[in-house]
Design a protein that fits this description.
Blueprint lengths: L4 E2 L11 E7 L7 E2 L3 E7 L5 E4 L2 E4 L3 E6 L6 E4 L8 E8 L15 H9 L4 E2 L2 H12 L6 H16 L6 E2 L3 H4 L8 H13 L6 H7 L4 H12 L3 H19 L4 H7 L5 H12 L3 H12 L3
Parallel strand pairs: 1-3
Antiparallel strand pairs: 2-9, 4-7, 4-9, 5-6, 5-8, 7-10, 10-11
């Protein structure tokens, strides 16, 4: 079994948050994870690659990501970025700051929903970045209570864009459970997560939730934003990617364990969604995990 670097963050029990605002010429920190929440802003990074869980994307000039799940692997790497003037602002804070009594208050509802969604890592749209840039730009110069107020304001402003922020890692890779206020969608989620190793037919799922196949297909696409089969594939790929990272099982075993028909089908679907084969995905992760 392989494990990436577990970072011991500088957030102390007496601090609300810890911030580092730095200029650098390149990304050198390896793939890592930690138990604290993290908001990361990068500027002048066009061509850099961001990895969060089983998501791998080449980013533009600006990038802003919030991760609240404990131990979700992430890294920004140089890739094709040629800028020698990278700015990186990292804000780390303990989940205890919000996830206890304070986050349950009505006034924190939008922040609570944003933090829940960020369990898989979320990337904010450009208009959100431009909105909060003034708050990020000088937060490190603030002290004491004023710094805390500005930090809370920053989170509040970002939470107003939560619906537009893109989830990055898959649920199953990030070990996150996304609950729905729809009884039928929740029944689907529970069924798929319990049966992803087996064949799952759309008509059978429709029968379970008491709908016709056509009505269920339309309903699910409307509520989930993807087809039922796309959802099943996402779940299976998340479990497969996690097994590739955390286990020494063969790719053939992982293919069978995660409900794919055969190795050719597994390789084709994995490459379509992850842009590389399972073998390359595993090798790339291990290379990053071994950098110290």
């Amino acid at each position: 079994m392989y494990s990436n670097i577990h970072e011991l963050t500088p957030v102390s029990e007496k601090d609300c948050f810890y911030i580092v605002d730095r200029k650098k010429t390149k990304f050198t920190y390896p793939l890592h994870h930690h138990s604290d929440c993290e908001l990361t802003f990068c500027e002048n990074v066009a061509g850099a690659r961001r990895i969060v869980g089983d998501s791998s994307e080449v980013v533009g000039h600006y990038d802003l990501v919030l991760i609240t799940a404990p131990d979700l692997e992430h890294v920004w790497e140089q890739h094709e970025c040629v800028s020698g003037d990278i700015r990186e602002i990292t804000i780390q804070f303990s989940s205890d700051l919000f996830f206890k009594s304070l986050i349950g208050k009505n006034q924190f509802e939008t922040i609570r929903k944003m933090c829940d969604k960020a369990g898989k890592g979320i990337a904010f749209p450009m208009k959100a970045i431009m909105k909060v840039y003034p708050l990020l730009d000088n937060l490190s110069s603030k002290k004491g209570f004023q710094a805390v107020l500005q930090f809370l304001n920053l989170l509040h402003e970002l939470s107003l864009f939560s619906d537009e922020a893109r989830a990055l890692s898959s649920d199953s890779f990030a070990r996150q459970e996304e609950y729905s206020d729809s009884r039928r969608i929740e029944k689907v989620r529970l069924y798929v997560n319990s049966n992803y190793k087996r064949e799952i037919r759309c008509d059978k799922m429709a029968e379970i939730v008491g709908m016709s196949p056509c009505s269920f297909s339309r309903f699910f696409k409307l509520r989930a934003g993807k087809t039922f089969q796309e959802y099943v594939i996402d779940i299976r790929l998340g479990y497969a990617a996690r097994a590739l990272v955390d286990s020494t099982k063969s790719i053939m075993e992982i293919c069978a364990d995660c409900g794919f028909k055969n190795i050719a089908n597994f390789n084709r679907i994995f490459k379509k969604y992850k842009l590389c084969t399972p073998k390359v995905f595993r090798e790339n992760y291990r290379k990053k995990q071994q950098i110290i």
